[in-house]
Amino acid sequence: MAIRFIILTLLFLSSCTIPSLSLYEDQVGLMDWHQQYIGKVKHAVFHTQKTGRKRVVVSTEENVIASLDLRHGEIFWRHVLGINDVVDGIDIALGKYVITLSSDGSTLRAWNLPDGQMVWESFLRGSKHSKPLLLVPTNLKVDKDSLILVSSKGCLHAVSSIDGEILWTRDFAAESVEVQQVIQLDESDQIYVVGYAGSSQFHAYQINAMNGELLNHETAAFSGGFVGDVALVSSDTLVTLDTTRSILVTVSFKNRKIAFQETHLSNLGEDSSGMVEILPSSLTGMFTVKINNYKLFIRLTSEDKLEVVHKVDHETVVSDALVFSEGKEAFAVVEHGGSKVDITVKPGQDWNNNLVQESIEMDHQRGLVHKVFINNYLRTDRSHGFRALIVMEDHSLLLVQQGKIVWNREDALASIIDVTTSELPVEKEGVSVAKVEHSLFEWLKGHMLKLKGTLMLASPEDVAAIQAIRLKSSEKSKMTRDHNGFRKLLIVLTKARKIFALHSGDGRVVWSLLLHKSEACDSPTELNLYQWQTPHHHAMDENPSVLVVGRCGVSSKAPAILSFVDTYTGKELNSFDLVHSAVQVMPLPFTDSTEQRLHLLVDDDRRIHLYPKTSEAISIFQQEFSNIYWYSVEADNGIIKGHAVKSKCAGEVLDDFCFETRVLWSIIFPMESEKIIAAVSRKQNEVVHTQAKVTSEQDVMYKYISKNLLFVATVAPKASGHIGSADPDEAWLVVYLIDTITGRILHRMTHHGAQGPVHAVLSENWVVYHYFNLRAHRYEMSVTEIYDQSRAENKDVLKLVLGKHNLTAPVSSYSRPEITTKSQTYFFTHSVKAVAVTSTAKGITSKQLLIGTIGDQVLALDKRFLDPRRSINPTQAEKEEGIIPLADSLPIIPQSYVTHSLKVEGLRGILTVPAKLESTTLVFAYGVDLFYTRLAPSRTYDSLTEDFSYALLLLTIVALVAAIFVTWVLSEKKELREKWR
Amino acid sequence: MKKKLPLFALFLFFFSLLLFCHSSLAFESDELLVDDEEFGLEGGSKPQIKPHEPAPTRSTTTTTRRKVSDQDSDSKIQFSLEHAFGDSDFVPAGTFSARLKTSSHGGQTLTKLRFSRNAFTGEDKEKFEKLLQDDDFYRIRLPSNTVSPPGRDYIISSVKARCLPREGLDEHFVIHMEGVNILAVNYGAFGACSYPRQLKLPHKWSFNSHTVLKNSEQAPRAPIFAEEVLGENGEGEIIPPPERSFWAKYWMYLIPLGLIVINAVTQAMNMPEEGVQGGGQTQQSAAAIQRGPGSAVRRR
């Protein structure tokens, strides 16, 4: 009896342990991963003094400043500046501060080199825009201080490097001189500032760097005019182009005299037709000119004559000059040769001599070399060695030393444009996973290694290999589909035109592909990813593929490029250069027999083009011809239009896959009072479990669920700037819910005294949006829910039984909707970078809003907090339904940060994908960093948690069975005794 | 007829009120007018307005009218409705007239919208029948600015022609206004238009029009009561958690206790069966129950 009691209580207690929503410390990293990137490197500064010997400081196109470990490429420290804070230049001052000039030359900051702490920050003011230049002279020292010279906004500033104090400022904008170069004269405290006034007047100022005193000012006019960059050849000579771009002008300003010398490009034996430009470089006595597809290295001889030293194709890259030991200079030239990259380091001014010549094998997926930076080190034999930091076309960063790639960083992942997911291959029965990943040999090798490991014979390398294999074959990082749908491939498209497939288990790159560049298109840009083929029921043998839509050029009228990529192998299946543009891409809800999804591309003439171009696709399309509608938002004009398909294109060339469209409806916002700032629609693949919502009063409300809802937010044009630029009285925010089939405005509401930026998310029958309230000086979040009244009479059970209901009737947008809306507004502390909502497989699980906060974290907020039915004193029934008492602001619970202690720097987007398990959703947040995790908004009610103790369960069962036997035997004995009595 | 009389009286009343207001020139309300008035008008064939009335005459009438009413702060304006059958060109189909009300701070709003529709000509009828046959779109458009039509562009709206026929042709306009600008017009059937749409010819070739003018609603303010709460509990007193019920507090003890009791009872029930056969059964069992769990414990 006692045993039974104990067991019962034990069982009871074990069933009572409720899984907590937030993570415990030791659960971090079990189902989430976080990766840090920096982006494409723009500038790099090596340092050879003690503190930074093993480091390189880089600034990138994602506005990141980072200090990297030269041995491994890891990040020591990193700072992500804002989107508008573009880094113009970096350098090192005093041997311990990293100086960065950013925001178009208006912000100067110093960071401590060892740990990245900010030491000081100065704001430089100026009136006019000019080229930002940063110069940290090495020998301008006053006591322990050294000067930093910054030319920006038409002024030259001298800044103390100890505390960032501006020592003196000289305004050149007043004399309408645009500063081109700031030159330090060797071994003196004088500097030259050269610039143009207008396009033909050349000015040279000689300035005392210590106090800003003007020593000399020379000016001279050049009739030809100047254009483009200048190349500094020596401390008193520079080279530029004239306005016809056919004459090289050598300007020398020595001895207080300005002299021009013209050299016609054709005199150098070069064809000067086409695009000629001088590339910025810092080689002594030499400069680089780019003409069409090749580059010329031109040297200034001692007689001030120009001569061509070398001619290379445009893929060759040259580094800046590096000064090593006693004023010797060197520079690196990187050339492509087949699959190899040749790196040669040449001493300054001597082209035919090589200090180092190395050739390295380069993966062709990395594309061309874009930039190279060199650094020298002392070899063990006291000779000079060189290492090169190479930036590739795919934004990856490589360190090359002794003819080997020491490390590489896949920094394209810092600039993700679009993300989609793909299922992994199904695990085939009878065939081991080995078939997918390894060959038989590798499989055998793996088993040998494991055997070695168990027999304690393994060397440290073997142990590492075993660990890697174990990690690979561990449940979460397998290359096959799992029962719960947790393992997926994240297909990401980056600005570098490179596509990566990341494994959702551990975030490793499964494959990567640099998109093929066609001959016809010089500067393609990629835009979006769409799921092209997702094999499902039939066509299981096909691999899934994604469609990449890009365009050739920047303008929206540029012709489109389509690429199809297999998501299992990472091979580009096909690629087309289209004749028409693609302003909009619409995946249709139809697939053909091979599960290829039909897509419509809208060009800038509002014609639509059907893809894939097969007769099967066209026959499917013809059936649904009259049911295809689409809308376009012209944010600049303030017009939203609805369109329908009209007829086949009438052109000279007969195209069966091209269709004309017509405008069905239009909404025109008055330009003087409203400006569109946000337009959000529902996710096409969202699943809604039930339309009915049972309220506490045993009443039913029907959600108005339409796939064709569009949320539009407009603000007063005056208040469309940044926060604080408008008075509350002249600011308003109007929100609309529009049916995109008929153009019907279902809901329209004005928030007075509110302004953008607006972040919104539309899901099921509700929309949540975030904006700034100028009157309350706070951010607000509003929720609006729409309910369908036309179905409200279906409450009668008798009606339902008799079938007198309209629940099964098809819904038509042309019917006049009878809807009611409910709204509520709450204050929210943070400003927001992105908003998303969790999505689950069947839509049963309650929803959470995922809010990307200004601190680059992702906050999960229950939708229940954003319920318009919240009231101050909810009734008992309402409380039971889960309605939270009304509060004026939304709670931010620290435990509900999905990213726990991590930051997703530069957060841009949040993607949620349903797992097969209904309770769980997969979340991928991307920016400069990547973060992935698994969320269960209502806890994992449909599966046991991973830490569930099966052993205890088994033990309990065994103990119970034993107890039953024992008591049975006991009672038998007792019975026998009773009978004998 | 019965209905019209009070309406007429109401109008008279309003008119007199208006007059009164002007004579006194004292008060003008700056209240935001939410014009949700609905006018169910018997549109259609009004004999005095001929179909396809030439545009210039209409524009002259508006200008004269505006001149007349310049001294009062509201004036009458007219703007035309145009329609198209399928992809044909737009032609005038009717006229909206409304009062332009100028409020004291310069904002202008439209009120008292009326609509008169031109009757269908034989040609129109044929075209409409063709639309019905093809299940094509019947399209209408309005100027985006009512004071200086057409403004930036025309506002277009369309409906599947098969949605309109009922007894006559039922149409329903919802015109979304922003001052004197029309943002959007929602045009469609008065009621439902279920899919698949059946081909049905109207009995009467006249329009039964309903128009609604809509302005933007004000959003509800965020509830502000944080200050109050702070003020009340400013001294930092801690609100005691609400008293929980007996069951909520002690369930963890009660359940095992209950189990024990049940166990004991079942044991007690079993005992008499095996013990004394026949008489005295009821008494014993009653006694066992009376003795309660204590006996059960002893038995163990």
Automatic annotation (TrEMBL), chain A:
Annotated coiled-coil segments of the chain: none
Residue intervals of the EMC1 first beta-propeller domain: 23-411
Chief subcellular location: endoplasmic reticulum
GO biological process, one term: protein folding in endoplasmic reticulum
Keywords: Endoplasmic reticulum, Glycoprotein, Membrane, Signal, Transmembrane, Transmembrane helix
Domain of life: Eukaryota
Bilayer disposition of the protein: Single-pass type I membrane protein
Gene3D superfamilies in the cross-refs: YVTN repeat-like/Quinoprotein amine dehydrogenase
Record InterPro entries: Beta-prop_EMC1_1st (IPR058545), EMC1 (IPR026895), EMC1_C (IPR011678), PQQ_b-propeller_rpt (IPR018391), Quinoprotein_ADH-like_sf (IPR011047), WD40/YVTN_repeat-like_dom_sf (IPR015943)
Transmembrane portions of the chain: 948-971
Any GO CC annotation of this UniProt entry: EMC complex
Domain ER membrane protein complex subunit 1 C-terminal: 763-980
Signal peptide positions (record): 1-22
Location in the cell: Endoplasmic reticulum membrane
Subunit structure and binding partners: Component of the ER membrane protein complex (EMC).
Family listed: Belongs to the EMC1 family.
Protein name, UniProt field: ER membrane protein complex subunit 1
Classification of source organism: Eukaryota, Viridiplantae, Streptophyta, Embryophyta, Tracheophyta
Automatic annotation (TrEMBL), chain B:
Keyword terms, alphabetized: Nucleotidyltransferase, RNA-directed DNA polymerase, Transferase
Top-rank lineage group of the source organism: Eukaryota
Protein name per UniProt: Reverse transcriptase domain-containing protein
Species this protein is from: Citrus sinensis
